[in-house]
Design a protein that fits this description.
Low-confidence stretches: none
Oligomer: single chain
Strand content: under 5%
Length: 191
């Protein structure tokens, strides 16, 4: 089964440290409308939910790696039942997309892949539950990783904010490299 501890190296490298970009109003702004930044990939709204009050710049800057990892495990890894996924590579790429595209967005892409490319009879409801995990675990993990990665790349290409999509695309390839998977265009259904 997939293990969260094996997941964190690329994540922390990709997310970096404290940032306060004016172009990222949604990620940097607390519920009071104050631009307070992000740190280790944890946005102001996520950290506000974690600590229970609107964070300040000082609060955001004080997020430590252990705190960030607690958040990633609780709200991203656990949200998609990653520990129940047999293949580490599939779990990691799914969780990485959950961090970038939200739980529902990542789940819908995975469910589309399973339904359209592998013929699995599952709902495309944006929720990774036991049926979706069973479907994930029932197919060839290398093929699933390959096709899910292509869907991810297409999703990022469709985003209007190219400031981040380029970095997100690089992450797809970093996970492929980590697991020795060469991403190549593969014939699959249009989604």
């Amino acid at each position: 089964m997939a293990n969260f501890k094996n997941f964190t190296s690329i994540l922390l490298e990709a997310e970096g440290g404290y940032q306060n970009r004016p172009s990222d109003k949604r990620g940097n702004t607390n519920s009071l409308g104050q631009m307070v930044g992000t740190n280790l990939g944890i946005s102001a709204p996520v950290y506000e939910k974690w600590i229970g009050y609107p964070p300040s710049v000082s609060d955001m800057k004080s997020i430590t790696v252990p705190i960030a990892l607690e958040i990633y495990k609780a709200w991203y890894w656990n949200a998609v039942l990653a520990s129940e996924i047999k293949d580490q590579a599939v779990a990691e790429t799914l969780v990485d997309h959950t961090i970038n595209g939200g739980e529902s967005g990542a789940a819908k892409i995975m469910q589309q892949v399973l339904r359209k490319e592998f013929g699995k009879n599952i709902a495309i409801d944006g929720d990774i539950g036991s049926k979706t995990v069973a479907a994930i675990n029932s197919v060839n993990p290398r093929d699933l990783f390959q096709i899910f990665s292509q869907y991810r790349l297409e999703a990022y290409a469709s985003f209007k904010k190219s400031e981040w999509s380029s970095g997100w695309k690089k992450r797809v390839y970093k996970y492929a490299d980590k697991f020795g998977i060469v991403l190549k265009k593969k014939a699959y259904s249009k989604h």
